[in-house]
Amino acid sequence: MGSADSKLNFRKAVIQLTTKTQPVEATDDAFWDQFWADTATSVQDVFALVPAAEIRAVREESPSNLATLCYKAVEKLVQGAESGCHSEKERQIVLNCSRLLTRVLPYIFEDPDWRGFFWSTVPGAGRGGQGEDDDENARPLAESLLLAIADLLFCPDFTVQSHRRSTVDSAEDIHSLDSCEYIWEAGVGFAHSPQPSYIHDMNRMELLKLLVTCFSEAMYLPPAPDSGNTNPWVQFFCSAENRHALPLFTSLLNTVCAYDPVGYGIPYNHLIFSDYREPLVEEAAQVLIVTLDHDSATSTSPTVDGTTTGTAMDDADPPGPENLFVNYLSRIHREEDFQFILKGIARLLSNPLVQTYLPNSTKKIQFHQELLVLFWKLCDFNKKFLFFVLKSSDVLDILVPILYFLNDARADQSRVGLMHIGVFILLLLSGERNFGVRLNKPYSVRVPMDIPVFTGTHADLLIVVFHKIITSGHQRLQPLFDCLLTIVVNVSPYLKSLSMVAANKLLHLLEAFSTTWFLFSAAQNHHLVFFLLEVFNNIIQYQFDGNSNLVYAIIRKRSVFHQLANLPTDLPAIHKALQRRRRAPEPLSRTGSQEGASMEGSRPAAPAEPGTLKTSLVATPGIDKLTEKSQVSEDGTLRSLESAPQQNSAEGSPAAEEPSQVWREQRRLSNASASGQWNPTSEWVLSWKSKLPLQTIMRLLQVLVPQVEKICIDKGLTDESEILRFLQHGTLVGLLPVPHPILIRKYQANSGTAMWFRTYMWGVIYLRNVDPPVWYDTDVKLFEIQRV
C-alpha cells in the first residue's frame, strides 16, 4: 500500500464526510473504515488532511456525522483494548483512531453545545453494538475512551515488552494481565528496567498525546475564581475506575526521572544516535502535571506521619484525595525513591547549564517548565519530599538552575510565567530554615551567567541574581519584587557571611527604593524598604560576626538611612518629589551599583524575538495572601502569627507590625493608584514612616562610625582592608537593642495560586505542542494567545 495512495483515500473520506448532508449510518462500515482501516497516515498527515474549517463545517452542518465519527473511533479503540492488538493491522487502526481523535477533540470542546457529548451515553452503542441497554453498556463515551487508552498503554508487543517465553505461548490475556509487572521504567516502586524499544515509546507517546487532548477541555473554560471546577476527564482517569492508575502513575514518573539526555552518559553521544525517548518523556511530564492539577488549598491533604509499610507508597490514614495520582504522589516516602526523583529532576533542570560550558555535549531539552511545575507539585503535596530536598546540599542542584532560568528570562516578555514559577518555588523553599542554612555553601560551579563576577556562597549568587532581575528585568516583573525580597528576608537570619558584591547590591536596592519619588509614587512601594531593613536587622542581630562586608557597606551608605529617618512628610515636599518623578528615568537604573564585568562566556539576557507567541496569565495574589507570617521560637519551632490576637503584634519585628487592616487599606489604595488616582497624603506617609525599623541600624552607626572615622584619621587611611579588619574583630554585644523575634513568611496554598498554576500549565502545554499544533487556532478561553 503506497503511502501516497493511502493519503489520497483518507482525504477522499474526509471530503465525503464534509459534503454529505445526509447522516451516514453507524453500521456503514465500508464508509467509516476508510478513516482508519487501510491507511498509514502519520499524525502530521492527519492534521494536514483534516483542516479546521472542515471539522467545524461538519460540526455545524451535519452534527450526527461528527458524532458517529467520534463514536466509531472510540469503539475501535475499545475493540483494540479488548483484543490486545495482536496483529499489525489492529495496531495501525488504533493509532489512526488515536490521531483522528487528537485532531477532532479540541473542536468538540470549543463549542459549548458539544461539550457534554462525550459524557452522554450513545443510544444503542453498547459494546456489542446491538443496543442491549444493561448498565455495562451505558458507559459515557468519555469513560470508554479513557479506559481504552489506559488498557492500551499496557498492551504487550504494542506499548510494553511481552513477557511470553515463545511464540507458542498463547497471547497474554489483556484482562488478567497485572500491569504492575509491566511498568515502563525502573525507579519508584519498580526495580526492573525493560529493554528500550523505539516502537513502544512512539506508540505510548501517541496515546499520551490523545490523553492530554482529552484533558484539555480545561482550556476552553474561562478562569474561574472558585477553583471548584474539577476536570471530569482527569477526575475519572485518576479514580479507582482506572485499574492501571498506580502502574501508569509510576511509569510516567519513572520515565521522566530516569531520562538522561546525555545519551547513556557519554558526551556528544546524541549526535550519533537520534533520541526517540525525549518526545515520550515530554508527553509523560505533561500528562503528569495535568493529572496533578489539584487545588491543595481546598482539599484535605494526606498527613505526613503514618505507619510506613514495605511498599513504595506510605499507607497513611486518612485516604487523602480521591485523585489517585495526587494520592500516590503524596504517599511516596522511601529515601531511595526521593533520591531517584530529586537526582532525576536536578539532572534535567541542569541540562541547559551543561550546554553553556560544554556546548553541544548533550542534547538540549526544552521541557524545563513542565519539570518546574512537577517539582512544585512534589513539594506542595508531599511534605516529606520537601524536607528530604532540604536535608542536604542537593537542594542547591535545584536552586542553581532556577537562578539561571530567572536571570536568563528576565528581559523576555514571553517568559513571565517561567519567572513566576521559579520565584514561587524559591518562596516555598525559603519558608524552611534549612534552605537558609544550605545557602552558606561556597558557590564554585562556574556556569556562565550575565552577572558580575564574585567569590562567595550560594546566598551571594541568589542576591546578585535578584538584584539583576529588579534593576534590569522588564516592567511586568514589578509584581514579583515583594516575593523576591520576602525570600531574602526569610533566609537572612541564617546567612553567615555575605560577599562585598552582594552587600553592595542590597544597599543599592535600598538606595533605589528609598528615593522620595519612588516611595510616594505608589501605595505599596514602601513595603520594599521595610523588607530590606528587616534583612539588615536580621543579619546584624543574628549574624553580626562574619558579616563585616555588609556592616562596612551600611557605614559607607549611612546617608541613605539618615534620609529615611528624616523623610519629609509635608504635602509641598511630597508634590515636589512626585514632580521630579515625571522627569526621572526608569524607576531603577544601574547607576550607583558598581556593576563590574559579567562572567566570561555569558550572553546578556535577551528580550523575546518580535512575534513570539505567549499566553496570558491571571494575576497572582499579593504577598500578604501568598504567605502566612510565623515567628521562630527559641527552640526553632514556628508559631503562626496569623490567628494571634492583634495586640501581640507590638512585640513582633517592627517591619511586620503593620496589622492586616493596614495591608487591606493599602490594597484598596493601590487599586486606586493603578487606575491613576493615587494621591499620597501627609497622614499616609506618617502612618508608615513612624514604623520604619531603623533603631538597630542607627545604634550600629552611632557606635561604629566614630570608631571607623578615628582609624581613618589616626592612620591616614583610605584603604578598605584595614577598616574591614577592624570591623571583623569588633563586637556590638550589649550595645544593640534586644534582638527581635525572627519572622518567616511561609507560602500558603490558596485558590488564587491554584488558578494561576492552571492557566500557566495549560499555556505552556499549548505553546509546546506545535508539531502537530493540537490546539492552535481553536477558541481557547482559559488564556489569550498574544504576540510579543
From TrEMBL:
Here the segments flagged for biased composition (Polar residues) are 669-678
Residue ranges of the region described as Disordered: 297-316, 579-678
Biased composition annotated in UniProt, kind: Low complexity: 297-313
Q: Which InterPro entries match?
A: Hid-1/Ecm30
Task: Please give the superkingdom of this protein's source.
Answer: Eukaryota
Pfam families from the xrefs?
Answer: Hid1 (PF12722)
Output the Gene Ontology cellular-component terms.
Golgi medial cisterna; Golgi trans cisterna; membrane
What is the name listed in the Swiss-Prot or TrEMBL entry for this protein? Answer: Protein HID1 isoform X3
